Amino acid sequence: MTVITGRPFHVVGAGCSVGKRGGRLVAFKEGLPRTSAPLTMISEVLVSGRVQVSTAAMHALLAHDIPLVLLTENGRPLGRLEPPSGAHVDARRAQLALHTDPAARLAMARAAIVGKIRNQHVLLRRRARRAPDPDAVWEAARRLSILESRATTCESIPAVMGMEGGAAGIYYRAIRTFVDPTLGCTRRDRQGRDVVNALTNYCSALLRETVVSGILAAGLDPFVSFLHEPARGRPTLAFDLMEEWRPVLLDATVLALIGLKSVTTSDLEDGGAGRPLLSPDARARIVERFHARLAAPARGWPEPPSRRTYRDQVRAQCTALRTWILSRSDEYEPFVWR
Known about the structure:
Layout: E1 2-4, E2 8-12, E3 16-21, E4 24-29, E5 32-38, E6 44-48, E7 52-53, H1 55-63, E8 68-71, E9 77-81, H2 89-99, H3 102-127, H4 134-151, H5 157-176, H6 195-217, H7 236-259, E10 268-270, E11 276-278, H8 280-294, H9 310-325
Parallel strand pairs: 2-6, 3-7, 6-8
Antiparallel strand pairs: 1-2, 3-4, 4-5, 8-9, 10-11
Helix pairs in contact: 3-4, 3-5, 3-7, 4-5, 6-7, 6-8, 6-9, 7-8
């Protein structure tokens, strides 16, 4: 079992439970208290797998306006428990109006994908020296810069997605050169059975919930999007905003875990129906590394305020989106990594 306290309170592992003692939330393993945190110090609680949460703990979370996020063992979201809110009605009305405006949707789609490609380019440049073939990685980065420029002039969302698809092919071919071939990863595949794809899927779930929390804090509707088509039960606005963060928070974390051999093929278990499942210990290491990444100082351009972490910056981007939606800025500017 691993619990990350401070801002999020994340509990991973079979045989775990969450309860309340006084003003603290307590995580138990097989009935014994392992760690706790004051409710006033927790921003959200995430439980992965079959973790029991007491009624008293749920009541306390609702009273303190702390979301409870339920994830499956492989990171798929089951749902969120949080108090009802009637605030931010104006922002949500404006968001829905812009969703029906083709020009606004295209502008946001271009921003999301341009930000993603730009940050993919930065990740490749940062890691080129350590690649077996640095020249090939630099060439991939150069080609991404060309596609980034082209994406800024796309006249339709399908054209934007075409640029994203072309960039993804270039990017993941370069990324594979950083990955030990014995790990069995031949391409990015959400249904892939290798440890790299399983690790990427789990980190993607952690990133999604981080972005959803930022969207809700900004008073926006996570189900009304611009780039991705809304679909029942899918927080598609989070998918929009995740694009710029994938290289910065998701891919960087995956490459670090693989490079340090913190997660290997020995961490895969049979999840049934032939699907791989990361072991509880592996998931605990992933959570720890991902939250350490979120807590690191944000490195962007222009330079973020001092002491702003990547978690803070994710929320700042959600607020920037709200500002654009309310017509208080001319355009949405994605986060630019450096």
